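Task: sequence design from structure.
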């Protein structure tokens, strides 16, 4: 029996808006990257001599994607140089009103992506070397198992006679593994589009190519989520592993060989840091340098800060954050850092025989910063400004 070699991928979500990125150029950068990633998939498919590429749903981000997005996506697919087989997922489901059935899509598919096959109905599809069992989503949320059609008696008897491997192509959550792993930006997901792998006819499927979960994940030796080839959100950590495709080689009745290949070009980082005195600012900067290197416009960072810094280093932190915001595609910042004047700073501001007003105001502000709430934040800002003004005044006097 001959083996089939293919690329398993999913969740490209071409056309994703990235609405939370306010800068238009940076938002367009992320949208463009999703198209560029298609070319990398093609390079790997050709290098591996893959027979085809399987996209397990969510090729596009919306069933109402605009014409420009559709043309860009199909143009990229047409350049891959290998057949591409896709099913609709929950984002680009094949229900009424979607683009899959529109004349524009069909015309563009014929002219730009003749290598693309879209499987819109649950019926076996035969290639030269394999059978594909598609489970397309015809609405965003299916309350029944999309793979239930495979349990019809006698439906697939002839598939096992020719010796070709049988591949399930589906989009949704398995009974063994549900959604999750993201930050709260995408919202909660209900229990829909559940794929019950345990109820598949015994020995029928040689490999299950799954989509929907955006990280690479093995469910069984023969069932995998490829994850998205280009991450599109921050994760909550754990074993979540987006940014890959899978190269699979499988023969009928044999265990598949699965190789994970890294494809992402954009990095989404999550960093938590607690300041514990002024020396910790230097530690924080070194960690950022190790994480980001000299890259500009290639990273997104979710940054949670807490702890305390002195007055001067709090101002320096503000400068660091402004620099990060400029060089990153996005800085998602939650800054709970508090100002706690060092002993030297307290002495400098409050022991001013020649400036009794500054000393009196400084003592009041320092006392207020030790509280909590909005008043403490206002007092901390005022204390920084007072400290800067006092230093400016001293520099001016020293030059006269």
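Answer:
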């Amino acid at each position: 029996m001959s083996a089939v070699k293919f690329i398993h991928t999913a969740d490209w979500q071409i056309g994703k808006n990235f609405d939370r990125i306010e800068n238009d150029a940076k938002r367009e950068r992320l949208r463009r990257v999703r198209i560029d990633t298609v070319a990398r998939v093609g390079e790997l498919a050709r290098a591996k001599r893959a027979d085809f590429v399987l996209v397990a749903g969510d090729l596009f981000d919306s069933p109402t994607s605009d014409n420009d997005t559709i043309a860009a996506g199909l143009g990229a697919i047409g350049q891959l140089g290998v057949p591409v087989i896709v099913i609709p997922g929950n984002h680009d489901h094949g229900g009424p009103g979607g683009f899959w059935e529109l004349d524009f899509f069909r015309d563009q598919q014929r002219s730009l992506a003749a290598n693309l096959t879209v499987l819109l109905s649950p019926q076996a599809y035969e290639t030269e070397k394999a059978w594909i069992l598609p489970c397309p989503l015809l609405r965003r949320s299916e309350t029944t198992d999309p793979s239930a059609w495979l349990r019809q008696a006698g439906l697939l008897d002839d598939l096992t006679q020719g010796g070709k491997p049988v591949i399930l192509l589906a989009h949704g959550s398995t009974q063994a593994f549900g959604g999750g792993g993201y930050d709260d930006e995408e919202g909660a997901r209900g229990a829909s589009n559940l794929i019950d792998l345990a109820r598949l006819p015994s020995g029928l499927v040689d490999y299950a190519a799954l989509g929907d979960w955006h990280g690479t994940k093995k469910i069984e030796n023969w069932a995998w989520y490829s994850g998205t080839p280009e991450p599109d959100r921050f994760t909550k950590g754990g074993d979540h592993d987006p940014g890959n495709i899978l190269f699979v080689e499988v023969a009928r009745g044999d265990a598949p060989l699965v190789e994970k290949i890294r494809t992402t070009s954009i990095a989404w980082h999550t960093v938590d840091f607690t300041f514990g005195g002024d020396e910790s600012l230097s530690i924080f900067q070194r960690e950022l340098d190790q994480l980001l290197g000299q890259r500009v416009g290639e990273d997104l960072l979710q940054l949670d800060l807490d702890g305390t810094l002195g007055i001067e280093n709090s101002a320096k932190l503000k400068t660091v954050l402004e620099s990060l915001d400029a060089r990153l595609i996005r800085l998602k910042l939650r800054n709970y850092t508090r100002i706690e004047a060092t002993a030297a700073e307290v002495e400098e501001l409050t022991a001013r025989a020649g400036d009794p007003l500054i000393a009196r105001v400084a003592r009041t502000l320092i006392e207020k910063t030790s509280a909590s709430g909005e008043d403490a934040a206002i007092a901390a800002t005022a204390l920084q400004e007072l400290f800067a003004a006092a230093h400016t005044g001293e520099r001016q006097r020293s030059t006269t």
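Residues 311 and 345 are 7 Å apart (CA to CA).
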